[in-house]
Design goal:
Layout (H helix, E strand, L loop, with lengths): L2 E4 L3 E4 L2 E4 L2 E4 L3 E11 L1 H31 L3 H16 L1 H18 L2 E9 L2 E8 L2 H18 L7
Antiparallel strand pairs: 1-2, 2-3, 3-4, 5-6, 6-7
């Protein structure tokens, strides 16, 4: 038996697909397909919040420099305002790596619910529904490989 994918809730082998305790023998599966759900506005809003968090200190620094120039105070006050603004702008540095990592993970997970369906014993059955695009891709490719091996294409003649 060959294992194509295995995690805590999904196992794809050369004989069956097991999802959350349900088993679907490959011999009883005739077709596999996937569907994409609608976008999750919550995920998109989270990405926007991460972008705002990265841009916030930089915008504050630019506004501070503009304010220092607009106030037209003494050189000491202007220098203090510009210095404080630059320090606020530099605050984004240490936080940027963390935020970029969160943003990257957000895109890896995706913003849609993804479903894997199969024709099992002649009727459509939803095998899996997940919002994790990376995991979905790994499982879907494993299911495709398993089904291809279980039902090899016959040459036309």
């Amino acid at each position: 038996m060959v294992t194509y994918y295995d995690d805590r809730s999904v196992q794809v082998t050369s004989t069956a697909i097991r999802v959350d305790g349900r088993t679907f023998p490959l011999a009883e599966i005739s077709m596999v397909w996937h569907r994409r759900g609608s976008r999750s506005w919550r995920v998109l809003a989270g990405r926007g919040a991460i972008g705002a968090a990265m841009a916030g200190p930089l915008v504050a620094a630019v506004l501070g420099v503009g304010l220092a120039i607009w106030l037209d105070r003494s050189a000491t006050v202007t220098t203090a305002i510009v210095g404080a603004s630059v320090l606020v702008g530099l605050a984004v540095g240490p936080v940027a790596d963390f935020l970029f990592e969160r943003l990257d993970r957000s895109y890896a997970r995706g913003s849609r619910q993804l479903e894997i369906w199969a024709r099992w014993r002649g009727r459509p059955v939803q095998l899996l529904r997940t919002g994790d695009a990376l995991r979905f891709g790994q499982i879907y490719r494993a299911v495709q490989r398993a089904v291809e091996q279980a039902h090899p294409a016959r040459p036309r003649g």
